[in-house]
Design a protein that fits this description.
Blueprint: H1 3-20, H2 24-37, E1 44-45, H3 49-54, E2 58-61, E3 64-79, E4 84-87, E5 93-98, E6 105-106, E7 111-116, H4 118-149, H5 155-181, E8 195-199, E9 204-209, E10 216-217, E11 224-227, E12 231-239, E13 251-255, E14 264-276, E15 281-289, E16 300-317, E17 322-324, E18 327-334, E19 337-342, E20 344-348, E21 352-357, E22 364-368, H6 370-385
Antiparallel strand pairs: 1-19, 2-22, 3-12, 3-16, 4-11, 5-7, 5-10, 6-9, 7-8, 9-11, 12-15, 13-14, 13-16, 14-15, 16-21, 17-18, 18-19, 20-21
Length: 386
């Protein structure tokens, strides 16, 4: 091999070694620059005291509290059967007037419809006739009594007059009782009347109306159904395994799809003594106040009934929980600011939720101003992405 070839080979080998011996510090610098270009995501938001005050952020120190376990049941809303009335006339009659419409709220004794009844007219005429005969018999008796005292008439005439008076009084009582049974006060009119009102037995809402003007109504025909909806029944099926956990009088929370996030409070008032052998369930009933009438019969509902067993759990107000990127989170106060924590929630206790994990006893959770923190968190993420 010539000298020129040896020099070329040595030069090539030197260049190769120089390329492989890159300084270690230079590699580390490039890694640091790469890491600096892609900052790690953080869920902590740093705020000054002034910013916290302006955002109206308030915290609550969470602690374990003793709460009753709850049984969740699918239920149906029903009218209070103790305050439900099917209104029908006491005597047959033709409907000549209707004053109540479907959905109307009516007062106790308010007229719902008026009927014209031949039977009532005859009964009223018989009462007026009996009343007249009673007056005549009383006058005859008083006259006979005076004449008998003066020994002007014999005793048999006096006794006959007294018997006629007592008979007339009995007939008058019978005629008056017949009117009362028809729902009419005998002293309402001094002449025979055939029309009478059909009235509401108590204050409530007309939930069914079958009265049609001009039709003949009979005592076995319901014209109106009145329901007092100021309280409603929540009917649910209790499973056999849960019967030992619940008692009559237990508190319950009821939710419906129509009012999401709102809990209606009530009590368990009835547990059936009979079990359905096929479903292995027992009927239970929760009674709930419904003064504003928002709960409607036949609505589907979910009833959460308190059990007799209790335990200590961490709870947070509903205002503390937010949904961010499909996850339920809360903000916890830390020295460096507010940290986003993913939480897993349990039962809804009516305004508060059980926290299974994500926070610990004694930590300060944001209960007001959470949306301000959420906005700042999302804004910082948008800035990082750009």
């Amino acid at each position: 091999m010539t000298r020129i070839h040896l020099l070329a080979t040595a030069l090539s080998l030197g260049l190769a070694l120089a390329g492989c011996s890159k300084p270690e510090s230079s590699g580390r610098l490039e890694e640091a620059q790469h890491a600096e270009a892609e900052p790690a995501e953080t869920g902590t938001i740093a705020l000054t005291d002034q910013e916290i005050k302006e955002a109206r952020i308030h915290t609550e120190q969470v602690s374990e509290r003793e709460v009753a376990e709850r049984i969740q049941l699918t239920a149906t809303i029903q009218s209070n059967q103790d305050r439900l009335a099917h209104v029908a006339p006491r005597v047959p009659g033709r409907i000549v007037g209707i004053s109540a419409k479907l959905g109307d709220r009516v007062r106790a004794s308010q007229a719902l419809a008026s009927l014209d009844s031949l039977e009532l007219g005859e009964a009223h005429s018989a009462y007026l006739q009996a009343e007249s005969q009673a007056r005549v018999a009383q006058a005859d008796f008083e006259r006979a009594e005076k004449l008998y005292a003066d020994q002007i008439v014999p005793q048999k005439d006096f006794l006959r007059s007294r018997a006629e008076h007592e008979k007339a009084r009995a007939n008058l009582r019978a005629a008056a009782d017949r009117l009362r049974l028809m729902g009419v006060n005998p002293s309402q009119a001094d002449h025979a009347i055939s029309t009478f009102p059909v009235t509401a037995p108590f204050a409530g809402t007309v939930i069914e109306k079958k009265a049609v003007l001009g039709e003949l109504a009979t005592p076995d025909q319901t014209l109106f159904t009145i329901a007092d909806l100021s309280t409603v029944w929540i009917e649910a099926d209790l499973f056999e395994k849960d019967l030992g956990k619940v008692r009559v009088g237990a508190m319950a929370g009821v939710t419906v799809a129509a009012y999401p996030g709102e809990v209606f409070r009530g009590r368990l008032t009835y547990i059936s003594s009979v079990m359905d052998k096929e479903s292995r369930t027992v009927k239970g009933r929760v009674e709930v106040p419904n003064a504003d009438g928002r709960l409607k019969p036949d609505m589907f509902a979910t009833a959460a009934i308190d059990t007799v067993t209790t335990g200590k759990v961490l709870t947070v107000p509903a205002s503390a929980v937010l949904l961010i990127e499909g996850q339920q989170v809360v903000f916890v106060r830390e020295n460096a600011g507010f940290e986003k924590r993913i939480v897993h929630l349990g039962d809804d206790l009516g305004g508060r939720s059980v926290v299974k994990d994500g926070i610990e006893d004694g930590e300060a959770v944001v209960v007001e101003g959470t949306y301000a923190l959420k906005a700042r968190l999302l804004k910082s993420k948008i800035g990082d992405n750009h």
